[in-house]
Amino acid sequence: MSEDTLSIGQVAKRIGCKTETIHYYEKIQLIPRPPRTEGGHRVFSSPYIKQLNFVLRARELGFSILQIRELLTFMEEPAHCCAEVKQLATQHQQNIQQKIADLECLQQALQTMINQCGGSKTDIKDCPIIDALNKEHAYKS
Amino acid sequence: MSEDTLSIGQVAKRIGCKTETIHYYEKIQLIPRPPRTEGGHRVFSSPYIKQLNFVLRARELGFSILQIRELLTFMEEPAHCCAEVKQLATQHQQNIQQKIADLECLQQALQTMINQCGGSKTDIKDCPIIDALNKEHAYKS
DNA sequence: ATAGAACCTGTAGTTACTAGAGGTTCAAGG
DNA sequence: CCTTGAACCTCTAGTAACTACAGGTTCTAT
Asked: Rounded to whole angstroms, how far apart are CA atoms A77 and A74?
């Protein structure tokens, strides 16, 4: 491919995703449709690559596709100040905090179960893990 | 409904899920198909309720449906000792540990981004959060 | 010129449900 | 006994965010 442009496979390799993911983002219009060669192959120039990179980094940070759409809207309308961006990021961070807390609680419950189990009983009817799972509420969030 | 048996709605309320979830578990054969009334309504007696409860507790603890199928198989075959159960639980716990570690790393990255942002700039082009997302790798697991 | 890697579009599958449509049955009150 | 409305039935489609094919075309290097 000519200088400054990349094929979809090259882009995928560079930014670290699969070509199918790029297809998908284009289909759902999360990224603009890039121009094509005569034969119909996608041609990615710098702005296309940059936007795709942005989307992927945001995904890596756990933003949902809906949230990314919002971020992109904020970026397109210069009227918006970055307070909105910060708000979205903060909201997202709080969700993650909550998720961590939930997982830690769950992890603790599992640990207790595992500790109680010697793991060598021959009869599964006495397995403390199975017992624990049969209780009314094994874990409450 | 007669004594010792419950309708699907009563079961759902008692163990804390939706009736649709019970329908779903029956459809994918995670629980056995309960007997019906003349008119076709499900009739849940104690063993049916117990197995459903087991499944729900395991789901609450984050076991996947595939893992629950394995647990149920272990329980059906008395030849298995509970070492297998313990192994599955331990594996699951390690996955959760990893997930917590990932989320904490991600949470840190977000915190850094948020800290750098005053949140009051009028021009979004200078927003440090957007800047960070445009970087090559915002976060690596 | 040709081989084969890379690309194309489009559809279906994944996980664990949830929501809805359109119809039937059950239980309580009159 | 009859009616009413809540609860139930089955079946299909939708959700998130991709992934995996199938069946065909184009590009690139020799």
From this structure: 5
Percent of chain B surpassing pLDDT 70: 87
pLDDT, tens digit only, all 141 positions of chain B = 667 899 999 999 999 999 999 999 999 999 999 999 999 999 999 999 999 999 999 999 999 999 999 999 888 876 666 788 899 999 999 999 999 999 999 999 889 888 888 777 666 767 888 888 887 664 544
pLDDT score, position B141: 42
CB-based contact B68:B52 (threshold 8 Å): no
Q: Which of B93, B103, B135 sits opposite A100 (nearest CB)?
A: B103
The residue with tokens 């109680």 is A116
Residues 64-83, chain A: which have Cβ within 8 Å of B? 71, 74-75, 78, 80-83
Scan for tokens 């789901």, then name that residue: B59
Q: Which of B104, B119, B134 sits opposite A83 (nearest CB)?
A: B119
Q: Does A40 touch chain B (CB under 8 A)?
A: no
Question: Alpha-carbon torsion A43, A45, A51, A56, what sign?
Answer: positive
pLDDT digits (tens, 9 = 90+) for A64-95: 999 999 999 888 876 666 788 899 999 999 99
Judge: B134–A61 Cβ closer than 8 Å, yes or no.
no
Considering only residues 16-55 of protein chain B, which place a Cβ less than 7 A from any atom of strand D? 19, 23, 36, 40-42
Which residue from A68, A69, A59 is spatially nearest to A17, judged by alpha carbons? A59
DSSP state of A141: -
CB contact under 8 A, A81 and B124: yes
Q: How far apart are CA A74 and CA A96, in angstroms?
A: 22
CB pairs under 8 A, 24+ apart, for B12-17? B14/B49, B15/B49, B15/B52, B15/B53, B15/B56, B16/A137, B16/B56, B17/B56
